[in-house]
Amino acid sequence: MSVGFIMLAHQNLDRAAQVSGYWAQNDLPVVLHIDAKAEQREFDDLKASLAKFSNIRYAPRRNCGWGEFSIVAATLDAARLMLDEFPEVNHVFLASGSCLPLRPAAELRDYLAERPETDFIESVTTEEVTWTVGGLDLERFTLHFPFSWKRHRRLFDRFVDLQRRVGYSRHIPEGVEPHLGSQWWCLTRKTLAAILDDPKRQEYDRYFSRVWIPDESYFQSLVRKHSTNIESRSLTFSRFDNQGKPHVFYDDHLQLLQKSDCFVARKIWPRANLLYRRFLGNEMKALARIEPNPRKLDKVFVQANLRRTRGRAGRRTQSRFPMHDLWAIQKTCAPYSVFEGFTDLFSNFQTWLEKRTGARVHGHLFSKRGAEFVDGAEVYAGCLSSSSKLRDYNPRAFLENLLWNTQGEYQCFQFGPADRQAIGNFLASDQNARIHVITGAWAVPLFHSDMEFGRIRRVAARYQAIEAAHVERLRSPHTRAQVKLWTLAEFVENPMPVLQTVLNGIDPGASRKLTEVPRLVDLQGFGRFVQKLKNEGMNPHSVGDFPLDDIPGAKTPRIKPYAIS
Amino acid sequence: MRWKRKRLLFRALRKRRQLQPVHDRTRAIARNDILLFATIRNEAERLPHFLKHYRNLGVDHFLMVDNGSDDGSAEYLAAQDDVSLWQTSHSYRLARFGMDWLTWLMIRHAHGHWTVTVDADELLIYPDWPRRDLHGLTEMLDHDRRPSMGALMLELYPKGPLSAQVCQRGQDPTEILSWFDSGGYTTRYQPKLDNILIRGGVRSRMFFAADPSKAPTLSKTPLVKWNRRYVYVSSTHSVLPRRLNRVRGPQAPGAISGVLLHTKFMHTVVERAAIEKQRREHFENSDLYEGYYDGLIGDPVFWTPESLHYEGWQQLVALGLMSDGRG
To answer: Given CB atoms, is B194 within the 8 Å cutoff of chain A?
Structure first.
C-alpha cells in the first residue's frame, strides 16, 4: 500500500521538481501535470532533473486557466495515469507546485495505511459555506459564467445580475449534490476510480465545465455519490487572506508551520530557501502519530488578517496611512485619560493619581510653554521633544506618537482652556480617550492670583468661552470619547464620587478604595469671588450654582473636612 | 502633474550635456539586473561600505555621477567593475540636487529595471534583508503588483559629540552611528502628489524646533520599477506619475516598506557643515539652513537617554518604523 501524488504546477518548476523528487525518492509515485503555458526549456530541465526516478509520470500538458474546467480535466488525466501505472497506490494526494511536505513521507504513508477506506476531502454543502468571496455559492452551480472573473470583472458581475433578475437557473444533473471545498484532497483508489469510471461522467464533465471554479466543486460534489467514508477536511494546510487569495508562507513562518503538524502546506514562496531546506532535508522532525492540527494556527491567522485589514491602530507610517473613515474610529493605540480642572482644585493631584494607579500622569501636555512631561523631562519616550512648536506642528501626531512610544504604560495628562486647543477635536473623536472635566475650575487659580481684578475678569471671560466651545464639542453626537462632566459647584458639593469615578476610569477591573484623597485647595471666599465676577457684568455659568459662603447667615459649602488641606 | 513630469523630463534632456562619461560599462547590464543610481561628492570614507552593502543586496550595476570630488572618490569608483561613472562640475543645486543628471541616466539605462536611487550616506534595508536580496524582494513586489516601495529615512547618530568617534574608511558606519529616535515622526498626506510626508526625527528635534515645517522630509521612495517616462520630483521624496507614490495601505493593506539608514552624522559632518555652508549648494532656501549648519559646526550631542540602540530590522518592524507587509 502506498500513496501517490498528483502535482499540478505551472511556474517555478525547479521547486516543483525538488518537491516531487523528494516524494519519488521516498517511494511515493508522482504524476506531474505541467501547464502548457510553462516554457518548454523549463519543462525539459525539470524532466532532466527527475530522469533518475522510475516512479514519476507526466500527464499530457493542458492549458489551464484560473477557475476553469481545464484544471479538473488535467487532474482527471493525471488520476487515470496514476491508477493505471501504479497498482500499489491506495491513496491519491492532489498537490500543487507550491506545496511543501511538512512531515516525513513515511509518516504520511503510515497515517493513510491506518485509514485505508477514508477519503480526505473538504466537502461542505453550499448552505454551510462561509468563505466564498463575492457571495457566490449555490449560484456557482445554477448560473452561467461566460466571462472571466479576473479579466472582465464588470461583465461578469453584470451577467450574474442579469441572470438573477431574470430568474434563470441551470438544471443540476441527477446524482450531483452541490458541495464546495478546498481544491486539495486525498482520495482512496476506490473512490477515485468510481469517479473516473462513472457511467454518467461525460454528462457531469459537460455540466461542470460551465460551473464557476469547478476545481473547488467537481470532486467535492461527486465524492458524495461514491464515497461512504468522507473525512471533510483537507490534509493540506492552507489559509486565505481577507481578499480571498491564498496566504503565501515565507521563511519567517517556519516555527508556525512546524507547529501545525500538518502533512503538506501551501502556498510556499518559491524563494523561501529556509523552508525548503528545513522541510526537505534530513532534519525533518518525526512526529509519529500526531494528528494534524491546523486549528492551532487559526488564531494566529485570524489575528494576522485582522491586523492586515485594520492595521496597527495608532501608528501611521508611509506604508500605513488610514484615510478612510472606518479606520478613524480608533485613532490611537491605547486608552488614556484626560483631566480638565483637577490640578486647579487639588494641589497634589498628579502625585496622588500616580501613586494610586501606577499610571504615568503628565502635566499640561498642550501647554503654550511646551509639553509638561512627567518629572519635567525635556525629551520623553521615543525622543519626543517638549518643544511647543514641534508639538504644534502636528498635535495629533504628537499624541499618537506619545501613546505608541509608551505602550504598556497607562498615560494621563491635564488639559484646560489655557492650553493650545487644536487637539480638542481629536480628543473628542478618539474612542480611546477618557475625558473628565470639571467646568469652571479654571476660576480657582484666578481667585488665588494677585492680578488686578479687571484683568482677571477678561481672562475669566476668555477661558469660559474657550471651555464652552470645548464642552459643546464633547457633548456633540459625533463624540466617541468617554466623557464625564461636572460643574465646579457639583464637584465641591460632593467630591468623593468624582474621585472614585476617576480611579475606576483608569482601571475599570480593579475596585480601588478611596483610602487617601488629594489635598483640596482653600476655597474660603470663592463664592464671593464668583459673585464679584457677576457684579462686573460677567456670567460665570460654567462654575455652576456656587453658594455665597462668606455672607453672614448663608449656608457654608459642605466640603468634607478630610479633603481640606 | 502630467505637464510637470514632461517638463522635468525635458529639463533632464537639456542637462545631459553636462555629464562627461568617465567609465561607461552599461553594456554589461543584463535584462533583469537591479540598478543603483547615485550622485556623489567627496565620499571616499563611505563608498567602500556603500558598495559592499548594495552588492550584498544584489545590486548588479551602479550608475554614479561624480560632482567634482577631490578626495579620490572618482578614481576609486572608476576602478570598480560594476560601476559606470560620469563626471560633472556643474551646479548640484541647479541640477535639482543632481536629480536632472540621474533622470537622464535613468531615461537611457533604467527602462524596465528595478532601480534603487539613493545618496551615498543612505543604506537601504527592509524586512528580512540580509537573507532576502533585492531580487527576492522585487519578485515579491511584482507578485503583489506593486511598482514601488517606500522607505523612511532613519537618522543614525553616535553616543556623545558627533566628531568624537572616527569611522575608518570601509568600516560599517552603523557600528559607530548606532542610535536613533524611535518616535516623534509626524505624517501628513499630500493630496497633490498622493504621497505621505514624514517629518521629525533627530534633526527636527535638534535644529528645527523654531520652525518644524522647514525640517527635512524623511519619506522617500527609493525603489521603483522604472520606466523611461517616470521622473523623481524632489530628491526621491516623490515621483511622477503619482501612482508610484502610493506605497501605503489601506487600499492595499499592509504594504511592505523599508528604512534608509542615514549615516550622515559621521565625524566628518562637522567640518563638512562648514564647507557646505560656504558652497550653498544644498536645499532650496540655503538661508534657512544657516542655523542648522551653525548647529552642526558646534559639534552637538544628539544622544539622549531616550535614544534607542539600533538592533536590526526586526526591531524596526516592532517599532512600526517599517512594515513587513503583514500589518
So the answer is: no
